[in-house]
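Exercise: predict the fold of this chain.
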Amino acid sequence: MVKSADAFRTIREVSDVLKTPAHVLRFWESKFKYIKPMKRGGGRRYYRPEDIHLLLGIKQLLHSEGLTIKGAQKVIQTNGVKSIINRGS
């Protein structure tokens, strides 16, 4: 069964989309206050489509542009979260 584009995704699904390990996504959550997946019982994470676009934008900042976490945080503060979400779209 294929999920709709607006469906929430588990951390495993997001990990597959970003080609990034789940532990890295959890680490990014601790460093970027803007990443806020919905959490259900037992701490299971569900990511909205805009969360995934934000993660894609952060990955681009860190991996493609070579910024450090502090540098990426500064870019987000300067340009706003929406600009980073648009990068990941």
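Check your answer against the key: The longest helix spans residues 49-64.
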